[in-house]
Amino acid sequence: MFAGNEPEPVFTATSGLHGTTLVIRASGELDHYRTPVLREEMSRAWNTLRSPILILDLSALTFCDSSGIGELLQVRHHGLTEGVRVILTGVQGNLARRLTLAGLLPVFEVFPSVADALEAA
């Protein structure tokens, strides 16, 4: 699938606390093959979450397909079920276009940056 010495696209999801608020940072390409990485990080997050707010920082996301959007909708649904406010930050580029075209952008609580979300929370 990849020609020559091009590295295969990667996706990472890492968690960190900002005060008492858990921030999960997604980076790279979120597609069908990489949604399990986000799902695994979210599972750890849900098991350790001690705050009614969770921020998903997507500012370093370079691509997101429909599988990735489905995973974000699952995160939102789980948050609603558990009484956790899920905030997306850094929604831009491909993801912003896809969410807008699908009419899903208003479904999420979105802030430009983690700092903006923390200030509003």
Automatic annotation (TrEMBL):
SUPFAM superfamilies cross-referenced by the UniProt entry: SpoIIaa-like
A family per Pfam: STAS
Gene3D superfamilies, per database record: STAS domain (3.30.750.24)
Region forming the signal peptide: none
Domain of life the protein comes from: Bacteria
Residues annotated as domain STAS: 22-121
InterPro entries reported for this sequence: Anti-sigma_ant, STAS_dom, STAS_dom_sf
Family stated for the protein in its record: Belongs to the anti-sigma-factor antagonist family.
Protein name (record): Anti-sigma factor antagonist
Species in which this protein is naturally found: Streptosporangium longisporum
